[in-house]
Amino acid sequence: MYGASVRGPFAGGIGNAEMGYYRSRQDASGANRLIENSMFKWLIGYEKDLGNDFKVGAQYLYEQKLDYDDYLFTLTPDDYVWDEHRHLVTQRITKLYKNQTVMLGLFNFWSPSDKDGYVRASCAYDITDQWKLTIGFNIPWGEDATTDFGMMKKNKNAFLRVRYSF
Questions:
Q1: What distance, in Å, lies between the first and last C-alpha atoms of the chain?
Q2: Predicted structure pTM score
Q3: Which parts of the chain register pLDDT below 70?
Q4: Residue range of the domain that includes 43
C-alpha cells in the first residue's frame, strides 16, 4: 500500500484528504479471481465546531478496483460479483451538555453503491473523573447479505457500558 494524507485548517473547520494505492503483488494483472485486485482509494473529510459544544463532521470514501475486466473474465457462474466502484459516506454529530459531562453522539455510515449502512447512537455521562456510563445502540442495515454492513443487519443491539479509569 502506498499513500499520502494531508490534514489542516480549511473553511473555518478542519479538512483532510487521503489517497492510497494498493498493489496486489500476488496477482498484478487481476486475473486470479481468488486474490483481490489492485485498487485506488480516495478519502476527503471535513469537521467543524459550530459553537456551544456542537460539532459536525463528514467524510467521503471512494474505492476503485483496477483490472476489473480481467477480474470479471475469471469469474465462475456461482461467484459473487464485486463492484468496480464503491462509495461510502460517514457523518458524525456530537453535542456536549452539563459542563461537558454529558455527550450525545450520532455516527452514520452509508454506502450508496452497496445500498447498506450502519447507525450508532450513544449517550455518555461522566459520573466522576474516573467513572463513565455510556448507553447506545447499533443498527446495521442493507439489501444484500454480502456487503460490509448488509451482512450484519441481523446484529442490531443496544449496549450499556460502565468504565472505570485510573
A1: 38
A2: 0.87
A3: none
A4: 1-90
